[in-house]
Every structure is written in C-alpha cells, then in structure tokens.
Write a structure and sequence with these properties.
Elements lengths: L4 E3 H8 L3 H9 L6 E3 L2 E5 H20 L2
Antiparallel strand pairs: 1-3, 2-3
Length: about 60
C-alpha cells in the first residue's frame, strides 16, 4: 500500500521546492493541507489534483495568446 499522507519535508522532496515555499503556499491557502495538532499534513491525492488544476490553468493562459 502506498503512503497517501505526507509531511512538509516529504512534500518538499516530492514537489522539488523548498519547505519555505510550501509554507508560503499554506499561509496564502493556495495548497491543500490540514493539521494534526500543530503539524502540517498533505494528502497526495489532493496535491496531485491541485497540480493538475494548476497545469490546466496555465494551459488556458497560453491558449489566450
């Protein structure tokens, strides 16, 4: 069974972005997340869906030009 929930360090490696960049996205509520106590957690299914949405949004921008 694959792991579906990850912490901020694991997400940083998965997305290949810094932990501080992920924290910025969390503060601005631009990335799906939840907390267990004071720990940030991320559902990889929701993260992958979020990435798909970002990709589609960016594709639309290019089609407008």
């Amino acid at each position: 069974m694959t792991k579906e929930i990850c912490d901020i360090q694991e997400l940083s490696s998965y997305l290949k972005v810094s932990v501080s960049e992920i924290r910025k996205l969390v503060r601005s509520k631009r990335i799906p997340h939840f907390r267990i106590g004071n720990r940030l957690k991320f559902d990889l299914k929701k993260i992958n869906s979020w990435l798909d949405d970002l990709e589609a949004e960016n594709s639309k921008k290019y089609l407008l030009f």
